[in-house]
Design brief:
- The protein is of the alpha+beta class.
- The protein has one domain: Endonuclease Chain A (Endonuclease, Chain A), CATH 3.30.870.
- 39% of the residues lie in helices and 24% in strands.
- The strands form two sheets. The protein has a nine-stranded mixed β-sheet, with helices on both faces.
- Helix 3 packs parallel to helix 4 and helix 4 crosses helix 6.
- The two termini are 31 Å apart.
Length: 241
């Protein structure tokens, strides 16, 4: 159950990547979005009620994805696991269709559709692609792939994605009981003027978690979040695998 959202008075939505912990507020990079929209709030309330009534993550997230009005824009709300696979393909399509730029902040990138498309776009070199990941978690994912043998095919795609475009990686503290949590924790994808932002890591497991993502077309917001990704990227060393 990976959501981090609030619905207030059936009118306001607060969502994003931030867990409600002291480390999240003080040690991690995160993004929070707030929107005033009764229609959007209704979608989030529907998702909450699915979780609350069924007490079963696997039966949640079956929420309509048609855009709804929110502060002068039309916004899509995506919920997982009900729409997880479609969301991954939606983000991959946006990356593959970008004409000018792609910016990504995600602790890990392991979703097959997204990895395949990102590796191709980064290798083609026709679009300005850059991003930031959590290097400690990426190395853990690589280790897991080698251990289970079922996802080794993803490793060349991940290597191409993170080394053929300027990606940086945060060397966060490895997890152990009682450790601090100082991960690069933001989850943002910008493709031209299209933004995907929420709780969803660009991962296969994220497709099966209880997650939410807002898809917003807005040039100003896209510019602001692309700038955020570049600022975070500038704090850390280039990815070395």
């Amino acid at each position: 159950m990976h959501h981090k959202y609030v619905v207030r008075d059936g009118h306001t939505v607060w969502t994003g990547s931030t867990n409600w912990t002291h480390d999240s507020w003080t040690r991690e990079e995160n993004v929070i979005v707030t929107l005033e929209s009764p229609d959007l709030a209704a979608r989030f309330r529907d998702d909450f009620e699915q979780l609350w009534s069924a007490r079963d993550v696997s039966r949640s997230g079956r929420i309509a994805t048609a855009p709804v009005p929110a502060e002068g824009h039309h916004v899509r709300a995506w919920f997982c696991p009900g729409r997880g696979e479609k969301l991954a393909h939606r983000i991959a399509k946006a990356i593959g269709s970008a004409q000018r730029r792609v910016r990504i902040a995600s602790p890990v990138i392991s979703s097959g559709p997204i990895l395949g498309t990102l590796a191709q776009v980064a290798s083609d070199g026709k679009v300005d692609v850059a991003g930031v990941v959590d290097m400690t978690q990426v190395r853990e994912v690589l280790h897991q792939w080698r251990e289970n043998k079922n996802a080794e095919w993803k490793e060349p795609l991940l290597r191409a994605s993170l080394t053929r475009a300027p990606f940086s990686g945060k060397a966060s503290t490895p997890y152990y009981p009682g450790s601090i949590h100082d991960y690069m924790h933001a989850k943002v994808t910008v493709a031209d003027d299209q933004v995907f932002v929420g709780s969803f890591n660009l991962s296969h497991s994220g497709e099966m978690n209880a997650e939410n993502v807002l898809e917003i077309h807005d040039a100003g917001l896209a510019e602001r979040l692309a700038g955020f990704v570049d600022e975070v990227r500038g704090r850390y060393q280039p990815v070395a695998l």
